[in-house]
Amino acid sequence: MDRKKVLICVATFLLIAAGVSLAQEEGRVVTIGDIKALPGQTVSGFLKVAGGKFPDAKIPISIINGSQSGPVLALIAGVHPYEYPPIEALIRVRAQLDPQKLKGTVLLVHIANLQAFQKRIIYYNPYDWLNLNRVFPGDPEGSISLRIAHTITKEIITRCDYLIDLHCGDGNEALIPYSYWSKGGNSEVDAASKKLVEAFGIYPIIESPRPQDPEATVYVDNTAIQMGKPAFTTESGQLGILDEESVQLLLRGIDNVLKYLNMIEGKVKDFGQPAYIKKFEVIRSNHDGLFYPLIKRGYFVQKGQPIGYITDYFGKKLETILSPFTGQILYIIATPPANKGEPLVEVGEY
């Protein structure tokens, strides 16, 4: 027997001794685009966004492939590129999560909207001025945002069993931490999503019905939900600030979800009875101009109470914004620019 055959036999014996066949080993390789991770490996790279006039468009991702079989959890950050705590949280997940102790696979989308992140732009991609979290499931023949959405849908969302879309207050939004229980119309998936968001532990939780058209899912989490995969969106952080408290809140939630899904060892924490917001409304600007808030995030307001006002560019008052009902300010725009059609404040009722 030649040396090559001896080495193959030895390698095969070692795998069998460890209880892993060659077929099983190959079957647990996770490949996303050009990025391949063997069991027990963490591998990072760029997922290419094909087509269009931006052939170099790419998405930084990591695959943490556990040494044992289990669920596939997708964690997505940077859909809105000025939201930094989720981006930082996933960098730390990559560094801290040991694939040798992981059951299953964690897919990390570090910055979904990289081009907008590089330009320090809120909400929109600078090359088509679309909001990425309004164009899912995307279109491989569309503009850059549509193609990014299609790539994430095809390569990440279709591959996962569970999904968390991580957000915070954008560069203009003063925001309290909260989560969305996204309800897509399938009672079993909705119930599983509810358990998942409660395990994450950022309260209050907004009950948020989502579109049920699989061809126009609009949001990241709803795209997964319409495929039968439990998912939710969470918010922690504000005003484009990278603060440690918001990062830790996200890391705490991710850790607890991994335990809840039995992907890592440890006792699932009980964060107490969650508060649910049954009714909410996002008030949008009717004018271009300057917005002056009269209250702060987290404040409770009465129906008809002034929340802020808008002036034109010369200081003439154009409109006073009133609370549509009694509730809590979940976020409010804390920077002056007001653009017609864009959000000013979100009010929630418990």
Summarize the structure in words.
The chain has 350 residues and is of the alpha+beta class. It folds into three domains: 28 residues, no CATH class; 228 residues, Aminopeptidase; 69 residues, RNA polymerase II/Efflux pump adaptor protein, barrel-sandwich hybrid domain (OB fold (Dihydrolipoamide Acetyltransferase, E2P), Beta Barrel), CATH 2.40.50.100. The protein is 26% helix and 30% strand. It has eight helices and 20 strands. The chain has a nine-stranded mixed beta sheet with strand order 3-4-6-5-7-11-9-10-12. Strand 16 and strand 17 form a beta hairpin. The longest helix is centred in the last third of the chain and has 17 residues. The radius of gyration is 22 Å and the shape is globular. The N terminus is likely disordered.
Write the layout of secondary structure elements.
Layout: H1 3-17, H2 22-27, E1 30-32, E2 35-37, E3 41-48, E4 58-65, E5 68-76, H3 84-96, E6 103-109, H4 114-119, H5 144-155, E7 162-167, E8 173-175, E9 178-183, H6 187-200, E10 205-209, H7 220-226, E11 231-235, H8 244-260, E12 276-277, E13 279-284, E14 289-293, E15 300-301, E16 306-311, E17 317-322, E18 327-333, E19 337-338, E20 343-349
Helix pairs in contact: 3-8, 6-8
